[in-house]
Amino acid sequence: MCRFVCLCVLALCLVLNGRAFAADLPPAATAKVDFQTDILPLLENHCVRCHNAEKQKSDLRMDSREFLLKGGSEGPSVVVGNSAESMMIAQVTGTNPDFDQMPPKEGPLSAEQIGLLRAWIDQGLEWPADIVPQAKGGDEETAPGKAPGLPEDWRVEATHQQGALAQGALAADLKGPNGEPAITLTPPAPPVAEAINLLWTPNAKFLNGSIEVKTKVIGGTAEQGGGLIWRVKDKNNYYFASYNPASKKFSLGKVVEGEIVELGSADFEAPAGEWVTLRIEQQGPQYAGHLNEQKLVEGSDADLQEAGGAGYCAKGDAATAFAATKLNAQS
Ligand code: HEC
Question: Which residues of 253-271 are buried (b: 16+ CB within 10 A; e: fewer)?
């Protein structure tokens, strides 16, 4: 009898626990989920770099539906049709006390992102067989950083990064020359001399047009200043234009597969400590770079001919402020 009662109590506890657990989860999205637009970017940007063919944290691969269903060391990660009972959701919500919350290091997913994953599972885990997610944002150690105060899609990365990432943020105590909000990009401590620190958004979709920004030195000895990056494919492929007041040099170039190639440069002297206006123009292969309304560099390059992201760069130990950005993209 006692044994029976105990079992009943135990069963009841389990049921109640299960309920409490489900109620704490962010709600599933109500709209029909589309794998390619809603789920794929999530997996690629936040999960697959640690759960793929080469790297299988906790024995889990997330680069196909079959692998996800097979699961990891604890068995299947997904119960199709039941997100509240799926380990994957317990991991991203941090409701499984035995395992770290996913993704580790970069910080939790938003409630909206979790809602999409839940709806995807509840709606049957649609996954077109020919789509294989690719790890984005580098490997585990070089995941992009967040940029406090800026929209979600802005990220901090570095070309030739070693160690910690720079900080990119909306400045609390600094304004642009006309009182505009300013953004700062400051190096990690210790700074990495060869690193080009980047603060950018893939959503700019910039192909042709112009981008203008006002920049100002806020720190740096070996390097100072910084500039713009555009047609950014990833942290190893983009165009850049930057001004270094320390060496009084303006430089425009490209980074292709991590290799830096200067396309043009010019001497330029701007009054120390003042905001400098940097502008680039791009039309097909034609580029031009201006400082304070003076065209300093122009030419043609056939390499990066696809629309890409845009943002800011600062090299090595340079700490730089950016304000009054005007992006004028032509379709
Ligand atoms: C930086 C690397 C990294 C990223 C990114 C990452 N994971 Fe993990 N994952 C791990 C590690 C490490 C463990 C083991 C955690 C532990 O033992 O506490 C794990 C374990 C898991 C498990 C448990 C598998 C099992 O059965 O053992 C699931 C499910 C999971 N991750 C899902 C995800 C999801 C979903 C994402 C994306 C939102 C994600 N992970 C992103 C490193 C990562």
Answer: bbbbeeeeeebbebebebe
Pair 102, 160 in one domain: no
How far apart are the CA of 56 and the centre of ligand 1, in A? 9
> Helix (H, G, I), strand (E, B), or coil: what is residue 111?
helix
**139 within a domain of the structure (yes/no):** no
**57 alpha carbon to ligand 1 midpoint, in Å?**
6
- The pLDDT tens digits for 25-73 are 999 999 999 999 999 999 998 899 899 988 899 999 999 999 999 999 9
Domain that holds residue 93: 2-122
Q: What pLDDT, in 10s, does the model give residues 267-279?
A: 999 987 899 999 9
144: three-class secondary structure by DSSP: coil
Ligand 1, atom 16: closest residue by C-alpha: 99
How distant is the alpha carbon of residue 250 from its chain centre? 27
270 and 227 fall within a common domain: yes
The protein residue with its alpha carbon nearest to ligand 1, atom 17, reads 99
Q: Do residues 250 and 155 share a domain? A: yes
- CATH number for the domain spanning 207: value is 2.60.120.560
Does residue 84 share a domain with residue 211?
A: no
d(CA 231, CA 39): 24
Q: Which residues line ligand 1 (CB under 6 A)?
A: 46-47, 49-51, 57-58, 60, 71-74, 77, 87-88, 91-92, 99-100, 102-105, 109, 140
CA of 226 to the centre of ligand 1 (A): 37
Same domain, 201 and 264: yes
